[in-house]
Amino acid sequence: MSKSYLTSISSATTNFPKKLLIWNYWDHEHVVGTHFEHYKKVEILFEDKNTCISERWAKLPYIPFYFKMKDELKLTNENQMDVLHSAFFNIIKCKQKFIFEENKNSCKVTRYDYLEIPNFLKFLQPLFDRLMKKWFVDVWNEDMPMRERRYKVWKLGFKDFKGIDYINNPDLKKKEISDRKYQVILPLPKANQNQINGSKKVFKRIIKKSKHIGYGLPDL
Ligand SMILES: [Fe+2]
User: Fold this and answer.
1) What is the 18 CA–ligand 1 centroid distance (Å)?
2) Which long-range contacts (CB under 8 A, 24 or more apart) does 52-56 make?
3) Which runs of E-coded beta strand occur in 15-121?
4) CA 118, CA 81: separation in Å to the nearest integer?
5) Nearest residue to 31 (alpha-carbon basis) of 118, 137, 139, 151
6) Which of the chain's ends, N or C, has fewer CB atoms near its CB within 10 Å?
């Protein structure tokens, strides 16, 4: 049967540095927290400095059950990330390309979606386009509080698993370093890894009530 693709393009611009956005896309722990309505479990099968292969138990809009999806992320170059999603024994395959265009104080993210389908399903193109654009906006909005919080503490000198100097040591004065260049090194260190069978990296949904766990704390 000949194959074709449903396609969609979505984009948004933000004031965050490109590397902070990459950190957000490569942070697997928040998937079962911030996006708890769509995901209940994530397991990382392999990861290195520019690749991550994981399995996610997901529930997408209009599909009333969870299914296992395999996701392969690749940081193709410093401005591009490619993702291959597959499910139902590879019957469903969706490729996504993310392009990051960073300027002085902003970064534009454009996502290109390609869902492989048999030719006779091409009539679904308008529906697919609407769904993917909605998905992009919904997830973008869900991610904003954690990006904002991360950037705020970064400018206060935050280091993973170490915290902020002036919070750890009351003798130090609060100091904001607004031009601290954001850095990201993959794979990201994990804070909340549920160890199963030794070295497996498994993250499970713990709370199903709030997507703002950890947010809404007093100003630092
Ligand atoms: Fe996210």
Assistant:
1) 15
2) 52/26, 52/28, 52/186, 52/187, 54/28, 56/31
3) 39-47, 51-58, 67-77, 80-87, 92-102, 107-118
4) 26
5) 139
6) N
Residue type, 2: S
Model's pTM, two decimal places? 0.88
Give the separation between CA 14 and CA 101, rounded to whole angstroms.
Answer: 11
Residue pLDDT, tens place only, 30-67:
888 888 888 889 999 999 999 999 999 998 777 788 99
- Distance of CA 123 from the midpoint of ligand 1 (Å): 30
Distance (Å, whole) CA 39 – CA 194: 16
Domains and CATH numbers, the chain: 3-143+194-204 (3.30.530.20)
In the reported structure, the alpha carbon of residue 140 is separated from the centroid of ligand 1 by a whole-number distance in angstroms of: 7
User: pLDDT tens across 136-152, in order?
Assistant: 999 999 999 899 999 99
CA of 21 from ligand 1 middle (Å) equals: 9
The pLDDT tens digits of the residues spanning 179-200 come to: 889 999 999 888 765 544 456 6
